[in-house]
Amino acid sequence: MSGDKAGRSSPVPAEQTPALFTGPRWFIPSALLHELDPDTTRAGRRPRRTARDWIVDFSCFLLAVLVGVLAAEAINDNPRVPLGLVVLDQVIGALACAAVWLRRRWPLGLAVALTAVTVVSDTAGGAGAIALFTLAVHRPFRYVAWVGGTGAAMAPLIYWLRPDPDLPYLVTVVLAVLLTVAIVGWGMFVRSKRQLMLSLRDRARRAETEARLRAEQAQRLAREAIAREMHDVLAHRLTLLSVHAGALEFRPDAPPAETARAAGVIRESAHEALQDLREIIGVLRAAEPDDTGRPQPTLAALDTLVAECREAGMKVSLHHRVTDPAAVPSAVGRTAYRIAQEGLTNARKHAPGTEVTVSVTGAPGDGLAVTVRNPSPEGEVPPVPGSGQGLIGLTERATLAGGGLEHGYTREGGFEVRAWLPWGPHGTARHRPPAGSGPPCA
């Protein structure tokens, strides 16, 4: 489990988990069962006792000794018990008190053994009670029920063999049974509290891990969006640079006016590309969107894009049939702008000299349709390297906006990109296109 603190023991493998853990696990993961049962061995070695463990174990040992001493005094004052039995009882009680130190390693075995020992030794009663409490804390209830029930059932026999000189027989048996039930209940309460604390701790760790993963995923998605934006912006600018630089290279005898115009386009495109790149790098460094930069283009900026392409020497025919471009939602308008921009960039690279047709139609409630079409280029076109990531990015953009995009060659040999984007009746996105309005593949 990720997010564990340093020094915490690693989860116990399934093949090393004792069979005693097959009881009711509730919501406790296997990684927490080891913390709940510290006597579990790992790699053939018991975990070392902490300072708190030593204090608790020593306190339990002292309590067992104190109860044994009180029981030994009561036996010494009973004239009906022979001296030999008194000595034997105290020896057995001393051994039982010493066995308390083994309660973490063998809680079930120790509880069973001390339950049988208490039948013949009064001084072992304290050690037996501590062993039963330890069993209730570290093992499921079915084991506690068997051992505790056996001890309660043997109480009438014990006090029949060794009756208490000060209390009636029935009162002694009832008190012994109530004491057993109290010890078991206390131990189960401690176990439930530990389970709750461990579960809350595990949930907190899971919540921290999930929050970190969500933050990383959000950051990754934001960086992917920035990278997509970088491709859409810089591809257009750098294509203009490439086209006009190539024109200057292959036409050194061009008129001065045309050379100056191409140089101006190169300078302006380089300046715009550097400014866009600077803004995107600034966003990456800040790890969050920068609202102080230039506004993102929307559908209203489509006329400027077409004018810029015409100044660069492209033949572009724009059919803008949206009466109020400003009413288009900003996200939808920006997606439509990027689709048109990428279509013009691809046409400039792969079909130079052809007339590109850009068509934008739509209305609130019907959606927004964007089409970029160019005919087949005449003559031989030098191959231009490309990875096709631009069209993939456009398809993702359209899908995320709730629409769709298709592209392909037409029957005449040209290329066409068609997209449909949602435009709700009140400027909101509608995520289901009307029947027959999706972008057909040409």
TrEMBL record:
A single MF term (Gene Ontology): kinase activity
Record-annotated Signal transduction histidine kinase subgroup 3 dimerisation and phosphoacceptor domain positions: 223-287
Reaction equations catalysed: ATP + protein L-histidine = ADP + protein N-phospho-L-histidine
Pfam families, sorted: HisKA_3
Chain ranges passing through the membrane: 54-75, 81-102, 109-137, 143-161, 168-189
Enzyme class: transferase
Origin: domain of life: Bacteria
UniProt keyword Kinase present: yes
Cited InterPro entries: HATPase_C_sf (IPR036890), Sensor_HK_TwoCompSys (IPR050482), Sig_transdc_His_kin_sub3_dim/P (IPR011712)
Enzyme Commission code: 2.7.13.3
Keywords (A to Z) from UniProt: ATP-binding, Kinase, Membrane, Nucleotide-binding, Phosphoprotein, Transferase, Transmembrane, Transmembrane helix, Two-component regulatory system
Descriptive protein name: histidine kinase
Organism encoding this protein: Streptomyces djakartensis
CDD domains, alphabetized: HATPase_UhpB-NarQ-NarX-like (cd16917)
